[in-house]
Amino acid sequence: MATTIKVTGADVPADAPLRRSTHSHVNLKSNGTSPPKPLAPMRTTYMKKKYRHVAAAHSKPRTSCLSHDSETSPSFLGFRNLMVIVLIVGNLRLMIENIRKYGVLICIRCHDYRSQDLILGAALYFIIPCHLFLAYIVELVAAQQARSSLKAGKKRSGTATPGGSYVASDEEKQKFQSTWKMIAWIHGINITFCLGITSFIVYFFIHHPLIGTLSEVHAIIVWLKTASYAFTNRDLRHAYLHPSKRDEDALPEIYNSCPYPQNITLGNLTYFWWAPTLVYQPVYPRTTKIRWIFVAKRMAEVFGLNAFMWIASAQYAAPVLRNSLDKMASLDLFSILERLMKLSTISLVIWLAGFFALFQSFLNALAEVMKFGDREFYTDWWNSPSVGVYWRTWNKPVYQFMKRHVFSPLVGRGWSPGAASIVVFVFSGVLHELLVGVPTHNIIGVAFVGMVAQLPLIALTTPLEKMQAALLYFFAWQAKYGSVSPAGKSYLAK
């Protein structure tokens, strides 16, 4: 069978001559007067072949995609998507089953938003920052005293080295330490009074846990920020009065644009108050503009995820906890274990939603508004090879504060890393107990024990066990004061 060629849609034998049209520019005579006409576009030429069943499907040695001998690592993106779908479908099934069993327990009108709660919450929101202003006054006085010590012509008892360093005398060292002790006492009394008064008002006078939690979180954040503000300015003041050219005493290069005491301004402290960090610096990496669409998207995620967490906890988690009280009272271990496993699923979902809402959505929105450049609020804690790595990666703002102002100073003073870690976890346990126990009016020590117990059990615990204790406080509040519809209350009472 002769091979054919397709030319402009016509099949002709391959060995037959091609006959051109009389209008083709190739047949024009050299003395022709008519101009050549453009050729019509030609289709792609292809060869028709007879299919042969001898193609080599196996031409070289290859390994399976999931085999350890595979040269390239496969992508598991599809498995991740599948697991997400399974998680969503599984929990939707449980929630549908819950609605069929208990009915709709969501009741916005049943929430007890007392006017007293709103008034006290608003008052605390404006009173708490006043303690930051007091801290600014203290540091402003200390900065003015430092300036006066370096006035031109004023004789100092220390020794200036040719390299530009200054070695303080014993008298100057003693004076600096005594001044710092007085400043530290003022700061300590100021912020502790702020946190104590806030905790007292929230525990005894604010009923609703959301308003109480916002007030308590604000007070704890101001406590930590003020401590960082005081410690950092102390070291900056020391470097200002006793300059050193040694590499280990050098300040970060980013601080050169705002040296001490130029950083002691109300605007600088106000920015630190709103910045999404607990560690004070005179200067932070900044962005150039605010992307308001980005902010709107992140805030929409915050509101959506918070609504989801409220519905999931009120509709599903609270009834499971209520139904577990009689099993706990009778010490039915197998039933308690079954209830805890049932509760752990929705608790995990609520925790993941809360983590994304806070660290990814809210903090990124706040950083965008403040033009805050460093937005590493967490790293890939889900790939943590150990619990210790998890604690260092899932909440970077708190980790950076603890490392900079608690752990590293203690180690620098001769403490062992183990002893310094005990102090860190005890301090963190106290803060967690205040954060979840005061707003829910249930200071039972579970959060504190859970944090301290991480030390001996750090090799055995899983990263998500920590949040179970925190959720118990909210579920306990739901069981005591929570809002359910009248129909749901009558059903649960049966």
From TrEMBL:
Keywords: Acyltransferase, Endoplasmic reticulum, Membrane, Transferase, Transmembrane, Transmembrane helix. The chain crosses the membrane at residues 117-138, 182-206, 299-318, 348-367, 410-431, 443-464. GO terms for molecular function: diacylglycerol O-acyltransferase activity. Pathway: Lipid metabolism. The active site is at H432. It is found in: Endoplasmic reticulum membrane. It is a multi-pass membrane protein. It comes from the Eukaryota. GO terms for cellular component: endoplasmic reticulum membrane. GO terms for biological process: triglyceride biosynthetic process. Pfam families: MBOAT. Residues 13-39 are annotated as: Disordered. Residues 24-34 have a biased composition (Polar residues). Sterol O-acyltransferase that catalyzes the formation of stery esters. Belongs to the membrane-bound acyltransferase family. Sterol o-acyltransferase subfamily. This is O-acyltransferase.
